[in-house]
Amino acid sequence: MSETQSVDPETLIALAENERKTLVERMPQWLLVLLFGAAIVGVWQGAVSYSGISELVLPGPYQVLQDLIFTLKNLFSGGYVAHATWITLVEVVFGFALASAIGLTLGMIIGATAFGRKAIMPYVVAINTMPKVAFAPLFVAWFGFGIESKIMMAAFISFFPVTINTAAGLAATDSSMAMLFRSLEANRWQTLIKLQMPFATPYIFAGLKLAAVWSVIGVVVGEYMGGGEGLGELVRVAASQLRVGRVFAQILLLSLMGLSVFGFVTLLERYFVRWKK
Amino acid sequence: MHAPRPDGAPILRLTNVNKHYRRARQGQSDIIHAAKDVSFDLERGQLASLVGASGCGKSTVLKMIAGLIPATGGEIQLKGDKLTGPNEQIGIMFQQPTLLPWRSVLENVLLPIEIREGRGAAKAARDRAMQLLQMAGLAEFAHAVPGELSGGMAQRAAICRMLVTQPELLLLDEPFGALDEFTREQMNVEFERICRSREATAIIVTHSIQEAVFLADAVFVMSPRPGRIIKRIEIDLPRPRTSDMITSTRFNDYVREIHDLLFGGEKEAAHV
After folding, report:
1. Which of A75, A142, A181, B119 places its Cα 20 to 30 Å from the Cα of A133?
2. How many domains does chain B contain in total?
């Protein structure tokens, strides 16, 4: 009896609560993720095997795995996939850099000047409501079939979130801090550089992360329209040859590229916004 | 008009200072008097507090002296010169510490110098800033970021920032209002000590009658609509002020007198 009495009542309550939890609530997340992934592959394999869908339309998981291994082998042995990946990466990096530069500049003009807010902002919003992908043929016509048209397309698609977030971040400046700067007779430049821009960095990075992903979209659209030597072109060719497994493998490479740029921006954010808890 | 005298002239003189603005309501526009005919003098080394209910215009008066909002009438003079905007001889702090979270505590304290005189001057003033932090008991937090400070410590850092330019006049807008009762009392004692040691001239806006009496040589009691000073009460308590004074009869007589002025007035107004 004395033993049961020595048990902490809160522990007993916690144990009782655990009893009530379902199996799924008690399982670790990684296991659930794996199980769900396996289930999808199982359904996929089943659908391919029993429905009689042609391999040309939807290859099974095994075929896709083989295509993936082929693509990765080619990539790491410096084959044509490596060349295409390099071209696309260059386009993405330059497109993203250009989008960041344009977005930051426009965002600062909009966020820090009345002219920007009143005269420029409506045009930026108007451009954003357009289906920007539809401009791709024009970009090919203007900038040619080389990497320039893809870079411009990527920048065009992804400058908007950087612009808006920069402007919003500058406008969100804490009003007491702004009052402090006014009492110190800070000029507009000092207020922008020493208060508003640092205050806006978390907003700016949220925009940059969106732009990182969107610039990959821009590059792929540019390559679909304007050809060239990148991964988008490989996807287009493989799809036209009904090699769906290859398409999947190449799309996976494109996602990894987007993820890498995203990860790079996240690292920068950790450094610049380390003051924010 | 008043010729500025070299000696004995008040540091701050308010003459019939007004602040009113129009408010449109249901098609009619009426004039709101946030501050009406506010006049007082403040001598060097005096601590004054402005006390009143929220919305009585006490913060408005403070912000007009700070040059953050323009007065619609009257004149504010600092050492005989008319004030027209923010002035480097005025130091200010708010209810929130408003420390920049991306700067260290020391860099925050040096911010006023950096903005007014540039980076070089801020660097040269590091020793002075460190002395201030030492005085505020924050020396070992000089290189910490504000996120690591407690509320009371952050306000002490804000006091250091206000003092670093060695201003003639300090303006404090409910400086300890966001702190818990214990920290607040402790801050009052510390702030009184700092002011006394530097012979500072200060105006403290507060809605705590106790705080107003505890810190001040003179309490200005304000009443709302229109915001005006209804009485100036000289506080004749010895300095340094100590925590045990709060329970003394004389202290509480002052508190009761101000309380009656504030709440008696409201009752009358309600009957009109």
Report:
1. A75
2. 1
Residue B214: inside a domain: no
Decide: residue B196, CB within 10 A, 0-12 exposed, 13-18 middle, 19+ buried.
middle
Distance from B155 to chain A by nearest Cα, in Å? 14
Q: Residue A5's pLDDT band (boundaries 50, 70, 90)?
A: low
Domain of B161, in residue numbers: 95-166
Q: Per this entry, what is the length of chain B? A: 272
Q: Is residue B151 part of a domain?
A: yes
Task: Kindly state whether B116 is in contact with chain A, defined as any CB-CB distance less than 8 angstroms.
Answer: yes
Are residues A179 and B101, on separate chains, in Cβ contact within 8 Å? Answer: no
Residue B108 lies in a domain: yes
Task: Note whether B170 contacts A: Cβ–Cβ < 8 A.
Answer: no
- Is residue B121 domain-resident? yes
Domain boundary assignment for chain A = 1-53, 73-272
What digits encode the pLDDT tens for the residues A51-104? Answer: 888 888 889 899 899 999 999 999 999 999 999 999 999 999 999 999 999 999
Residues from chain B that touch A203, judged by Cβ atoms under 8 A, are none
Task: Find the closest chain B residue to A201 by CA distance.
Answer: B102
- Structure confidence by residue, pLDDT tens digits, B23-44: 877 777 788 888 889 999 999 9
Distance from CA of A172 to the nearest CA of B (A): 14
Rounded Cα distance between A234 and A138, Å, is 22
d(CA A190, CA A195): 7
Q: Is the pLDDT of residue B261 over 80?
A: yes
Are residues A180 and B96, on separate chains, in Cβ contact within 8 Å? no
Q: Which fold has domain A73-272?
A: MetI-like fold (1.10.3720)
- Return the pLDDT at B32: 83
In angstroms, rounded to a whole number, what is the distance separating the alpha carbons of residues A140 and A222? 8
User: What's the longest Cα–Cα distance across chain B?
Assistant: 61
Chain A contact for B27 (CB, 8 A cutoff) = no
Cβ of residue B101 closer than 8 Å to a chain A Cβ: yes
Interchain contact A195–B (C-beta under 8 A):
yes
